[in-house]
Input
Amino acid sequence: MLFAPKEEIYSRITRLKSLMEDASLDGAFFHYKIDYYYLSGTMQDSLLFVPVDDEPVLFVKREVSRAKRESPINRIVSIRSIKEIIHHIKPIKKVGLQLDVVPYNDVMRFREIVGNVEFFNCSPLTRELRKVKSPFEIALIERAAAIQKMVYEYVPQVLEEGMTEIELGGILEAYAKALGHEGLLRVRSLNYEAYTWHIVSGRTGSIVSQSDSPMGGLGLSPAFPVGASMKKIKRNEPILIDFGICYHGYQADQTRMFAIGSMPKLFVDGYEACREIHYKVLDKVLEGLTSRELFEYSKKLADRLGFGDYYLGYRPHKVRFLAHGIGIELSELPFIAATHDYPINNHAVFAIEPKMVFPRKGACGIENTVYVDNGRYRILTDTDERITIL
Amino acid sequence: MLFAPKEEIYSRITRLKSLMEDASLDGAFFHYKIDYYYLSGTMQDSLLFVPVDDEPVLFVKREVSRAKRESPINRIVSIRSIKEIIHHIKPIKKVGLQLDVVPYNDVMRFREIVGNVEFFNCSPLTRELRKVKSPFEIALIERAAAIQKMVYEYVPQVLEEGMTEIELGGILEAYAKALGHEGLLRVRSLNYEAYTWHIVSGRTGSIVSQSDSPMGGLGLSPAFPVGASMKKIKRNEPILIDFGICYHGYQADQTRMFAIGSMPKLFVDGYEACREIHYKVLDKVLEGLTSRELFEYSKKLADRLGFGDYYLGYRPHKVRFLAHGIGIELSELPFIAATHDYPINNHAVFAIEPKMVFPRKGACGIENTVYVDNGRYRILTDTDERITIL
Output
């Protein structure tokens, strides 16, 4: 089991403090576990307080000895109730909290405890920090990608005509877990969950659902209406496997195409168009184009290749992003999207996923997790990109 | 795929309206998907509004045709932005919202849209409703339990000395998914996740973690510090398998004990004590004792049986509940706990889980999901309760 080194954690905190200063914050509470994991190295039941001008304090409810082993934070305090924090913090006026995810009642509870302070949503600060990945983080994402590569290479050994999508998903999940995959893909959202077993075949690839994905899939029930279903996988239909892996909390995302017998020409052509878009957009990333420019450029490419109507879904269900940053959450900065506007070529890790969806027919596409820096990109999910025909 | 019948959904709404009237609410918004699934039958990206004196309206962002197929709600309106709801609702003054889970910023957004209303946390209302299970719900939990029984009966075919806990977890998960298990156990919490692959063996059974469980387990990393780990399963040690199943969103929870070779006497005795507590407490449930009384009674039993120091964990890590209600969330009402005080014998479904944890040695225990009504209880997880020795 790997623990985050002290320099890693304190360099994150130093960068955070500089952003806090810009925002005139006296301090910030980190109550959401994704955020305090990033800043402390532990996910034990805790609350992290970072004063702008002093040492951070990690308050741990359960279990403090594990938190001390996992986290290099100098000041770790065991508490039984959140009320006790007041004895350990100096008076504050303007304080950060994750107002985008922390429930309303919890914010009110904080207010009761710390008195009449001004709360400020500091999630944009940590999201900005996490837009830039460190070598320590890249190494964990590489490890996730290495597990993923083994999973994709395992598909030909187990994929059979007549098995259900979910059956295949379960088998791949079991294989991945034995290699260290952690089974959940965390997302910063009240209502949106991501499953790793996103497998669609033939017509289920054209089914839209609540998820912000061009091909939601059928899922298993109204309570799990996304991803793999009880549909049997048939010969000569496109099988799209979009399987995320999580290692020490860090995720890698990837999509590859498979078929038993043969892949219909429409999907072969669509897939080649996706690959062309994928690589041409990456070249433009290096040139320093912004998210929005990259997104518009990709749409023009799709049009020119004759797939504009199917690119990132069909109307009115098209999604408005081509790539999402990835790390300890599935949707981090940076994005390649119509609504974002910044260059994405600075120590960024993102999953780029051009996909085509054909109404009532199915879907095809590619996805890679890519690291970009110093005028170069490196594809972390370096699985063979050819369509696999069994 | 099963959809909730119209009578089921409208009877829930009728019961809800009566509680809303008691709380003087003009209406209630259901923004958390667990809650609007319960009240509408769909988990498509939606917002449910229930006026106290009129038809409920389901606003659907994505995807409306699926929502219409899944939900029997009469008024379903397709929206692109949440702002549009204002055109479909009458003026309201006091309105319910899930303030225990809805993020602060989302509540502020609602306030902007609906104007200066008084928000009231209506989660206790739906939690109260869900304390009583309908025959439709029982049937789904029974189906989850039936899958679970097959999973437990599959263990002897796959459990081998030298395999890791997570390897076994993955294999069971794959088997369960092929039978319709949905892979996630939803919990009403910002920071707490539940995994189905809760397998601990020997010493990992004594490891405490952030979870509110007597045996948290080692987990896979600081980012997943709960449940099955990379520890190899050995001969002659207790193997505790606490494996939840989810079917159409409804969960069943169960624990059974296994060993390869033999089970050390300490754990056999501890397990028999757990079974005795389990059945004696159920008898008292039927007599109408309250949660707190049941909890205290169970502690006395554990003391008398000589296991007081290990019952529900060792000090200072003991947990303060013996049973949790279960349904579309893992921790629903009713509880058998020190901090709850009501009888639990009315159409209730709960998972009762007496467990013993021995420091540095391991854990043992039993867990069943039980339906109680009309002076009888029925164990839904009717897997053989004997310790399985391979």
